[in-house]
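Issue 218. Parser rejects a valid record. Input:
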Amino acid sequence: MTLSVLTELAEANRPEQFALLEHAAERLASSDAVTTLLVRGSLARGTADRLSDIDFVVGVRDSQFEEYVSVLDALATTELGSILPGWRDSIVGDMGGLGFVYLIGWAGQLQQLDLYLVPASHIGQVREQADCQTIFTRDRSAEFEPDSTTARFVSGEVSRPRTCTDLLVEAMVVGYLIRKRISRGQRLIAYSEVFLFNTAAKNLIKAALAPRSTYYGWYQLEAEVGATPIGRECLAHLTALISAPGIPTLASLTDGLNRVFAVAELAAPDAIDTIRDAIDAYRHYLELP
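Output the parser choked on:
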């Protein structure tokens, strides 16, 4: 670990974030598959506040990339205290890898941990592309050759259809992001994320009730899912979601989250059962009724 960089970050940021940053860096670096750790975002720039996320780029040996992705949720849960499986981040820019967002229970609060996994052969490109600081390098002299198998795996993961559980997790993570925007008064960013939240709810309904749909986006949604009582009830919740204020309040966000959970209970009860304990923890941290 580059202690001088960590020391600088410790002086520039709140202790809560730095303590989690240091803990996460140590746990991630303990795997031989990890070659490099970069910190980016407000923590790297020294502009973080109490709501700032912790944003890592994790260089992983090309030959071990797929295996590392497969165990990442387990590592985040057991080693870092994530309350949810990772959300496959669809907001982060493409740097040749895969992004995941975790919600970590830390010091009695939820903290956001962003992990962007990139094949070690791409780390040089990421350093040029992203504003980041290196805090760990396993072997400065090592060189890594690109692996076409890893590139195909990344492409396959990006295009893989999301399960109902994936989409429920997405709605919960985006709900947490919206909560932060409301707290910061970031009205325009909150507005953009409300659309993402509502789209996750729509996609959850489609994945559960019209999994073989050939229509794009919102097209023919009422015809495809509105033929059954469950479908009509789900559409009623979705209509309420998209009719809520474009710029959210805590009250509208709470109502929206409860509607997403209601939709999941109706249309995808197995998804609820899979992460029921995580939902309870999420409700506790966000103080949802």
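Fixed in the parser; the record now loads. The mean pLDDT is 91.
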